[in-house]
């Protein structure tokens, strides 16, 4: 499998707090990967480590087979779009394109011009007076016209209205179809992730909770309901992600690659949203480790 | 040319929805052998979905022998699907109605019947799959 990001034991610390810890993962090439998790879970930290804007405090990360941002050539292979679509307010749209052409070896002038004209942006307009959606589109143009092999997008649509969001994602997907670029994007909007992503990473409390192809994840997670059951009597091959036992009924979200044959269970498929929420609300390993630490300390 | 629609609330994977819409169009005669399916790029431009999803749906249809991709030209319908026989549907409806009447006179309510029906469908359509 070709990978675009490979991390092993990756960690980043701010003071005493680990923003990301013990992260080991391999993100496959040719995918649109969704990075989800609560605020402060480490999504931006992971993306900034991959972009080479941060140095790891533990473990290592390789992007497209090399350490991030080590050489100008490596920088050219990765496009990074930070949160809130940063553009220079005083600089015109044309100025941004000129800057992109100066700074990037593989700059595709034709592509950039075509995109700006498709978007209906006025070349002389200052970026500061563009709408949120137009700013995001301008920033995406800068990140894609350098023809990267990997695009890292940190919450690219968070501040956009639904229409601008849809247009942004559509243009991003057209770029994926046209350029075969791999994408990793973080978002809180599961509906968007469901639409555009075929690989999913869930981070909670600075830890990696889940990573895999969305389709395989959906096929191996099931919502079961049935007569109340002692959790200890469940098949050993089931990983119980979420459980509730009320009255005579047990409801479970389990991960298993085997079919659920016991007729006592009513089996329902899970949506991506159910799945993400179940993993997000599960106490993370970090939280458990902290609790264990506390018990020892007291 | 077929226009794909998505129902995000259906809980059905996007590629399955796309493949199903092609099969439905074949059954209804809206698509015929020789017709070209939209390119991944065209579908993406309309639905804002991952292009891999479209290609995956087309691969499934290709595996079923319904379409064939010709490099550089597009994906074309090569076979059609027969519609379900309306007479078979009517016979099944009559048999089902008789069965439900006897269930009702045995004291079963709609909810009981629903859960029995779901179990039966599951049993029937997973036979030989696992």
Computed over alpha carbons, the radius of gyration of chain A is 22 Å
CATH class of the largest domain in chain A: Alpha Beta
Please tell me how large the radius of gyration of chain B is: 19 Å
Q: What structural category do the secondary elements of chain A indicate?
A: alpha/beta
Count of extended strands of chain B: 3
Low-confidence sequence ranges of chain B: none
Largest sheet of chain B: 3 strands, antiparallel
Biggest sheet strand line-up of chain A: 5-6-7-3-8-9
Number of helices of chain B: 5
The portion of residues forming beta strands of chain A comes to: 25-35%
The helix tally of chain A amounts to 10
The chain-level mean pLDDT of chain A equals 90
Spatially, the strands of the biggest sheet of chain B line up as 1-3-2
Task: Spell out the CATH superfamily of the largest domain in chain A.
Answer: P-loop containing nucleotide triphosphate hydrolases
* DSSP strand count of chain A: 13
**Sheet with most strands of chain A:** 6 strands, mixed
Give the overall pLDDT of chain B as a whole number.
Answer: 87
The percent range for helix content of chain B is: 55-70%
How many separate domains make up the residues of chain A? 2
Oligomeric composition of the shown chains: heterodimer
Report the largest inter-chain contact. A-B, 27 and 23 residues
Brief characterization of the structure:
Chain A has 298 residues and is α/β, with parallel strands linked by helices. Chain A has ten helices and 13 strands. In chain A, 36% of the residues lie in helices and 29% in strands.
Q: Could you explain the architecture of this structure?
A:
The model of chain A is unreliable at 285-298 (pLDDT under 50). Chain A is 36% helix and 29% strand. In chain A, helix 4 (109-119) packs antiparallel against helix 5 and helix 5 runs parallel beside helix 6. Chain A has a six-stranded mixed sheet, sandwiched between helices. In chain A, strands 11-12-10-13 form a four-stranded antiparallel sheet. Chain A is elongated, with a radius of gyration of 22 Å. Chain A has 298 residues and is an alpha/beta fold. Chain A folds into two domains: 3-205, Rossmann fold; 216-297, no CATH class. Chain A is built from ten helices and 13 strands. The longest helix of chain A is centred in the middle third of the chain and has 18 residues, at 162-179. Chain B has helices at 14-27, 40-47, 51-63, 86-105, 110-126; strands at residues 36-37, 67-70, 74-77. In chain B, helix 1 crosses helix 3 (51-63) and helix 2 crosses helix 3. Chain B has 130 residues and is mainly alpha-helical. Chain B has a three-stranded antiparallel sheet. In chain B, strand 2 and strand 3 form a beta hairpin.
């Amino acid at each position: 499998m070709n990978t675009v990001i490979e991390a092993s034991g990756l960690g980043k610390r701010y003071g005493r707090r680990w923003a990301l810890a013990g992260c080991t993962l391999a993100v496959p090439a040719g995918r649109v990967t969704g990075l989800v998790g609560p605020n402060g879970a480490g999504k931006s930290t992971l993306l900034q480590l991959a972009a080479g804007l941060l140095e790891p405090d533990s473990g290592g990360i390789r992007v497209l087979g090399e350490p991030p941002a080590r050489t100008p050539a490596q920088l050219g292979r990765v496009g990074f779009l930070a949160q809130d679509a940063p553009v220079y307010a005083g600089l015109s749209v044309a100025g941004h394109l000129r800057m992109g052409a100066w700074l990037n070896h593989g700059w595709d002038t034709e592509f950039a011009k075509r995109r700006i004209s498709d978007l209906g942006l006025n070349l002389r307009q200052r970026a500061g007076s563009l709408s949120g959606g137009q700013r995001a589109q301008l920033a995406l143009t800068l990140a894609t016209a350098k023809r990267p092999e990997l695009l890292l997008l940190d919450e690219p649509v968070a501040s956009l209205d639904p229409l601008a969001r849809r247009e942004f994602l559509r243009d991003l997907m057209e770029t994926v179809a046209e350029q075969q670029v791999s994408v990793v994007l973080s978002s809180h909007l599961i509906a968007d992730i469901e639409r555009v992503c075929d690989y999913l990473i869930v981070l909670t409390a600075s830890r990696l909770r889940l990573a895999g192809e969305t389709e395989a994840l959906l096929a191996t997670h099931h919502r079961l309901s049935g007569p109340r059951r002692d959790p200890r009597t469940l098949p050993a091959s089931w990983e119980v992600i979420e459980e509730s036992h009320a009255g005579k009924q047990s409801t479970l979200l389990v991960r298993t690659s085997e079919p659920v044959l016991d007729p006592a269970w009513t089996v329902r498929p899970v949506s991506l949203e159910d799945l993400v929420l179940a993993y997000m609300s599960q106490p993370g390993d970090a939280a458990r480790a902290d609790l264990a630490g506390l018990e020892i300390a007291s | 040319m077929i226009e794909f629609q998505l129902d995000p609330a259906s809980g059905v994977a996007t590629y399955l929805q796309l493949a199903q819409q092609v099969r439905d169009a074949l059954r209804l005669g809206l698509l015929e052998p020789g017709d070209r399916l939209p390119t991944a790029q065209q579908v993406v431009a309309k639905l804002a979905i991952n292009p891999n999803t479209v290609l995956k749906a087309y691969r499934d249809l290709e595996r079923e022998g319904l379409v064939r991709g010709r490099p550089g030209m597009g994906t074309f319908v090569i076979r059609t699907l027969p519609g379900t026989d309306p007479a078979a549907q009517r016979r099944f409806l009559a048999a089902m109605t008789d069965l439900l009447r006897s269930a009702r006179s045995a004291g079963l309510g709609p909810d009981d019947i629903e859960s029995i029906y779901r179990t039966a469908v599951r049993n029937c359509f997973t036979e030989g799959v696992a």
